[in-house]
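B., you asked whether I could sanity-check this one before it goes into the benchmark set. Here's the sequence:
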Amino acid sequence: MDFALHNAWSVPMTDDAILMKQVLDTLSPEERQVCIWKLAGFPTRDIADHLGISENAVDLIFAEAKRRVRKSLRQRDDPSDQDSTV
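And here's what the prediction gave me:
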């Protein structure tokens, strides 16, 4: 599942859409895919089967992605929050 790129002919992106794209861009392709599927309601087992990894690995990828998203949003709201761990 890929996102269509925003172009000059499309409807302007809302602030929320811009923020979502910026946040998703901080994730690895694997983290982004797992997040999209989890948020779409796919069960962990189905995601794991599709990716050829364990359910535990999916849960770990999702947990790391959520941590990175929270950090990205914190830094957006408070630029002085410059924790060096990604």
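One thing to flag: The CA atoms of residues 72 and 78 lie 10 Å apart. Otherwise nothing jumped out at me.
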